Amino acid sequence: MVVTAMESAIRWLGQVAHMCVDPGGAPANINGQIRPRRTAGTPSSLAVLFPLPSFVDRQLCVDPMVGPAAPWPATLPVLLFVWRSACSANVTVVQRQSNLRSLQGQPGDQPASFTYLHPRPKAHLVSRHTSIILRGPRVHADSVAGKITVRNAESGDLYDGKIVLAMDGKTVIFEPYGTLPAGARVEVKVLRGITTTNGRSLPGAEWSFGVSSIQQEELLFEPLYSRDGFTLAGTPWEQPIHSYDDGLVRPMSGGDNVHAYGPLYEDGKAIELYGHGVSLDPRRRYRGYRTIPPTLPHVRVNVPPKPGKVDDGYILMTTNIMFTNPDLEVNAKWHPYTLLLDSRGDIVFYKQHRNQLDKPYFENCNARPSIHDSGRLSLMQDGGRVRQSFDEHYQLVKEYSPYGYETEKSDSHDFEIGSDGGYLLYMTAHERVNTTGMAHNGKVDDFLRFHIVQEFDAADNMVFEWRSIDHFSTDELMRWTAKDKAKHHGDWDLMHMNALSWTPDGHLLLSLPRVSGAIKVSRETGEVMWRMFGRHPDFNDFAFDPPLHPPISHQHDVRFSDANTLTLFANGMENDPEVSRALEFAIDEDTRTAHLVFNYSDGRYSMLMGSTQRLGNGNMAIGWGGLNLTGPLPFYTEVTRQGEIVLEMQLENDGNSYRTRKHKWRGEPRWPPLLVLDTNQGQWSDDRPPRLHYSWNGATEVAQWRVYAGSDPRTLEVVAGHPRRRFEHSIDLWPKSPFHPSGCVYYQVEPLGSEGKGFIKSAVLASPACTAA
């Protein structure tokens, strides 16, 4: 009787199996299971997955959410009960979470699955240079060889490639050797037999996806890194010297270390620009320092640090500004820098960047720095095309590039390096879409910007890719977005992702300011786990206490500050009034509730950019951004939980920073200290004696300085010593001193650590009288 019932139910399953096809006619087959098409009005959200008897050559997935094409056989409940009783280890009832997730039992095995597939089944507009990625339980590396085949669904051509097991032991990657044809439908088949580390044999999987028809050029097939550690590792941060006529005397010889000084100019043409309002008088430089470039911006400390209330650390920022004047002479006055400052506004580290004089109407910001959990300092430069990380010696550790997309699509908004060496990259791509009926100026062949997040492990294997186009339809985004703000250089930029990070529980948090919202993405499945904020009510999944007023609008820097709190900088564009705020929420992801626990605003408005960071002592570090579009703003404000400003800084040239953070940092450069002699152009006097000036750009561990001098550069003696109190120090060389530069004297300086251990010495500097002799 049971056998008859089973056979009856199986015959019924065969009748409805024809439903299990995708729009292209191919079976919707995941992990060897036929998944019926889902229909509306379904009564249940449970999917029952079970193995069939041995006389059936494939396993089927029956989904109660789908109305059958044939009547349910009366014996099917009996069949399910018998199978569940006899094969309880092989029957799993799971809550449906996504169309990617599926579990399948094998006789004698526990249920197993691939929880993540890339590209997603039925994905479209996939890069011609995509990898194929699947993730499940840990598997043996020697069991994956030959288990993945990739072919053209129309021609049947097979594509060769290599199969790699990522560092996590779970992620299997197929990297095609060549490009996939534009517009092709590609079928992927994973053969049975990949074995887990506990000896189970995994089922197979089949799915298909569509390749973009756009011919993309200048594609990067591999990240720019050095697998063997020799190509890039150990390369020093470039610090070229350019001589200029400012009356200061520098070492022009001195061996191999002369070229390794801290930077004076990054661009050899910079000297030609100094006629445009930049003074070469050393006394007019920031804090009167002689060892820095004349273009280094001046910092005004609006609110000095309040003792006992300011958090420890260094302030990291990159100067930028938005030009609205097409006059290149005016724009040439601006020189972008990366700066690391202490809480007094003094320099710790500086790097000058190339001036983007060819972009007079746009943001002049050539780099965005970060200090990551990995302990590395990173820079994004040239609009995100160059991403680099450096160690505490400012040595280049690695360069990072996306996989399979045009170089010009790299994005400079954000970039993360994890403590394990893995990293997250973000790109923007373009595809043609039909926007007629969605916007008053929609077109049949409009261009839409969509976003791609890629995660790589420390061995540079791409282990995850998330594409916004897979999860949000164009009409949804049009509904959620302020369409009059969503055109970007002629393209629809409906999300404009501007921040990404790992969440404390190992997933991803993405900020989407065009919809004024944020999303959490599962790194296990790629699915959107929840949506938060948003100007349109059907975007948001959370209830807010108190209710949000004004709403979040065009925010930046959305991040978790710990497991249950989230910070952001709410710019406030299109609110009434337009006021920017630094906010922190305590969130409960289970109940989808958010409580506002910190709110700071003093009426300032920043149209774009900005950051909010919770510091170790509970203070909030606020970077105001703004690009001077709404007037000058501080680049850094530190406030207590009660809203008291305990430190604030501003650039005197009205520039700002994309974001500003405070970090712990230890720097010990490989380049030597910089030493210069200011002779007042030979016009010294009793009240204006010659001075030696010296600094060590980027060094944080200097406790003391030691000064050497003598008539023979091989036998210099210590002539002075003192504690380090600022970035640059100087000593006067009085006329009666035997080391006055009127004679031939050689000078050198040495920084010392807290225990008196010497670091690298400067080059030896000769007074002008030595060369005259």
TrEMBL record:
Record GO terms (molecular function): aryl sulfotransferase activity
> A Pfam family name for this chain?
Arylsulfotrans
Q: What is this protein called?
A: Arylsulfotransferase N-terminal domain-containing protein
Q: InterPro entries recorded for this chain? A: Arylsulfate_ST, Arylsulfotransferase_bact
- What organism is the protein native to? Vitrella brassicaformis (strain CCMP3155)
* PANTHER family per the UniProt record, alphabetical: ASST-DOMAIN-CONTAINING PROTEIN, PQQ ENZYME REPEAT PROTEIN-RELATED
